[in-house]
Amino acid sequence: MLSEREDELGARLKEFEGRAAAVAGVGKDPVNAPMIRHWCEAMGDTNPAYTGPDAIAPPTMLQAWTMAGLSGQAGPPGRAEAFGELLALLDAAGCTSVVATDCEQEYVRPLRPGDLVTFDAVIESVSDRKTTKLGTGYFVTTRTDVRVGTELAGTHRFRILKYAPTPRKSRKGRENPSSHRRPRPRPRPVVNRDNAGFWEGVERGRLLIQRCTGCGTLRHPWLPGCNACGCLEWDTVEASGEGTVFSYVVMHHPPFPAFDPPYAVVLVELAEGVRMVSNVVGVPYDEVRIGMPVAAEFRRYGTDAGADDESPFVLPVFRAREGS
Q: Which pLDDT belongs to residue 117?
């Protein structure tokens, strides 16, 4: 049962439903070909609809045209006071952490280079108090209507969880002060019907890449259809495992129990041309460099005594090759 204080907070939060989160926001830049090109290159999307004189913007870029960027501007353009007040109220209640949980978009008309978007956003809903594995808090959903002139182009719903983190406890229920020093078991990969074949290959020590049987395009991560021609038929090719570090980031914060920061997360470009996110092993994090040659190897996790995993599993990692 909720305490009287929690009931009061929940009632105050509910009062924000229907209030504006952004008013008369204007995109910082018109829809433009360079941003479309960069997006398509990053996503590996070669759909011809996004190039040429009659190009449209990928529909999933809808939110990109409303974002403030890294200029130091305080919040998105047009942000209303109500949204800041809502977040401050949650912060004051101890819900200082935030994680994005869900995004829904509806596309009404395509956006084309030269279009200047405007937008309004509303605080659509605030949930009752919820307890999750991350902690206890509230789900906040905002809805943004994106327009060109008076014409609706699309709707973007974004849901976050503002929560108070749950202290990590030992099995006896006492808070474990050393838990941040002892790595926990690695999180298991999320296996679904679209990527099950990849993980089955990894379990056998094989790095399998999808290949479209319509146009021959290789793709990773695994998808139900080809992002080049739309064909739903595919087979696989086995990668050699050799590649180079295309990009990387060194993670310092936030701490994650399964890893000991700082550590490098890399984007490896395989010899076959596709890219894969993983870790580089065999060298310190501060020696990882763009262009570093690497080779895949397969490591089994979840085999330590007392591990929480029901069964061991295999993950692909990349080892720096000699002479790198």
A: 96
